[in-house]
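Pair request: fold both.
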Amino acid sequence: MAPVAPIHREGRAARDLGSGTKKGGPVRNSLRRAVSPQSTSWLFGATLAHELLEALIASVDDAIYMVDPDGRVRFLNPAALRILGYDRPDELIGRISHETIHYQHRDGTHFPAEECPMLRPRTTGETVREELDWFTRKDGRMVPVAYSSAPLATDQGRGAVVVFRDVSERLASEESRRREAEERARAEELQASRARIVTAMDAERRRLGRDLHDGAQQRLLHALLLLQDGRHADEDPAVREAARAVAVREIRACIEDLRELAAGIHPAILSNRGLSAAVESVTARVPIPVDLVIPDRRFPEPVEVAAYFTVTEALANVVKHAMAIGVDGDAAAAGPAALDGVVPPAITTTDGAVVSASADGAASSTIDASASHARVEVVASPGTMRLVVSDDGPGGATLVAGHGLGGLQDRISALGGTFEVDSPPGAGTRVIVELPIAG
């Protein structure tokens, strides 16, 4: 039974050699014992011991690669040949290792030899392990590898032995899991977005009902009562004429209310003349200069609608902020109703808010606009429309799900687009939208 221990030790050495990248086995000691003729020749003889060693190294799944103190390749097993894409060992034996398989990064940039961790054990004596690196194959393609590099003492000085394996399948599996996670997150966000859109639609229906009840309906009822009163005032033509005049004013005001309400739902100019004309009509009533860079062409209707309301919402935010800092504290605290007397309606936002400049298009004297300039730019490229609305205001804009810009984000996502708000405090705001378009 005495001879059993050496045989077991050599088997353990072979296993350690083949598992260097997973367990970090004692590669250096294993190789030292493996290459020692005395460890096996007493049992098999020198020739058989050498053949046994070759068989053990050839049989392991991991690639084994040895370099001498000068960094030249001195040995590699069949697994190393296969991963590196070579047919015969003599294609690599004697060549500088780094300049042959490790001279470039994944992106193709040069990898200086002095920065190469794989050969560091030759100079420091340390063992280096990398979970992901890239070797260059014979055909120039790169292969992802995980490796363990350990120092190896030789008669000429300290070399290194590298045990590595191809991790392409691992990376593919990780990428597949990442894509699946992204798809799940996208599906969950789409579901949540649809729920927010339904909620927003219900809220919009209620708002429209309130606006019709409080605005157009009340004006029409008032006009009806005035006309009825005038009909019974036959004995006094002046009273009848006064009632008729007031009724006409109420009806005209009702028509204007309905126009504004319709513009908030879908402006006629957008359908008739397109995005450029519709945005121009909006910016004409904004109290700060707005540069427009919009191609004079038509886009698919859903894209134009989404872009139009993105512009109106972004510009309304600029005006609303100017109003908030230009009105005294009591009016600001009272909410939108207190602002009705400060500026007349001009911009209708997606959530029904109405903000504007003064009636003649100039900024109201009560407004100290924090933004002095805005810009709307649309760039059409094959398959994509990119919209950027920017201003030089105070920044700090935030998204609230289902409201304002947050509601627009849901609309853009439903069309397969992307929505981004870049608004660092003190550096203005940029709303960036990209939407897919056909053709």
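--- second member of the pair ---
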Amino acid sequence: MTHYEWNIRDFGAVGDGVAYDTAAVQSAVDACAASGGGTVVVPAGRYLVGTVELRDRVTLHLEAGAVLVGSVRREDYRFVEAPPGCALKAERIGLIYAFGCEDVAVTGRGRIAGQGHAFWTPIPPDEMGEAWNTIPPRFTAQAWRPMMVLFEQCRNVLVEGVVFDDAPAYAGWLIDCEHVAVRGVTVLNEFYGPNTDGFHFCSCRAVRVEGCDFTTGDDALAVDGNGSGPSDGMTISGCTFNTSVNALRVYTGLDPGMTPEDSARAVVRNVAMSNCAVTNAAGVVNITAENGLIENVAVSNLTVTQEQEGTAFYLMNMRGRIRNVRISQVVARGNGAATVMGTAGQPLEGIRLEDIDFRVTPKRKWHGAEMPDPVPAYGHAHFAPWGVFVRHVRDMVVRNVTFRWEGTDEQTGMSAPHCEGAGAAGDFPLKCREVDGLVLDGWRGGAMAGDGATKEPDLQTVRGVVVRNCDFGPQKD
């Protein structure tokens, strides 16, 4: 062991999963930091810990076979108030915690086990509700829950290789951090858990997420501008997703405790997602601006299978602005294609859907044909239409998009309307309402065959339409 490495066993860690090793791990971290930084080594074993606070230039390295087990006792955690100037007012609780640090890292081939189920109360099966309209919750969260990694106002952050298992809430929450890399991480959270997200990035800058594998009970990745400044510059590549909610959620506002003034200042810009595989999700990319601004989002080269009820791409604002979003080079199979909605006073701007192959099996849902105006609540994203639905948008391009219905009426039960707002199987899968500037180029797809089927796109109050190279008949392989 070099003088740049500190083994937690040398500081009294037992590693039997019974004795509390928080003090030993913290002592190793403090000794490492006092010497100018280095690596705190966690060898094979099960180490029961509460909050461990990292310092400048400290890497916490979990060797293969090492497991940090999160305590279930409240007194073992540090509870932190939001710093001044941060719009996100929620209290912070973290297992691995750092504030205002530089050059901090959590790495290795080991695991961090959160014991999430100890923080939830199971819901009796007869109280779970209907399974068709969304994933019914199976647990309710107890009064407090720690994040597994919580970094705030940190610079030069690395999380690499580690497995996050059974988080009580998020696997990682990073607030107002910059120059962040999350690489080769595996998140194995409860698929039906309450808010068992992957990683949330709040007002972070220069973030890279690469080669990660997510199984989550809420958003696998989330980006918001609800901290002390904008979220600016994030790339996501080479990841796989299995989630009961969204693979990627980009949003402003919506978090508890934020004032209207706080949410009006929220900004997210320059987000790129590419070369990823979604094996299951309710939504692939969800972009929602309660207030503030979301701009410059590019999504490309995805393969998607959605077993959950939902829609692949969902863009919606309330008072905020969304502009310059491009989604391209996608093959998606599910029960919803794309919903793009602004408001009468604040249309979305510069939206592109290009080179996409949608294959949709129309399972029943509340708004299968058309979304109500106004939308009753943010959560209605789960119930969005089967087809491509566009409303209150300025400068919309739909280019080289193919839409295929999969499954017969007998297989899907879609021989008649089954839910509020749903049309019959003859509805055309492209509907536009209140659009200024629509280019429809190379569309392939039509209504399900049958008597009364609509023969062309349903365009109402659409101005400045260009239609070329389209085939509005049903598509077959």
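Observation on the second member. The first helix runs from residue 22 to 34.
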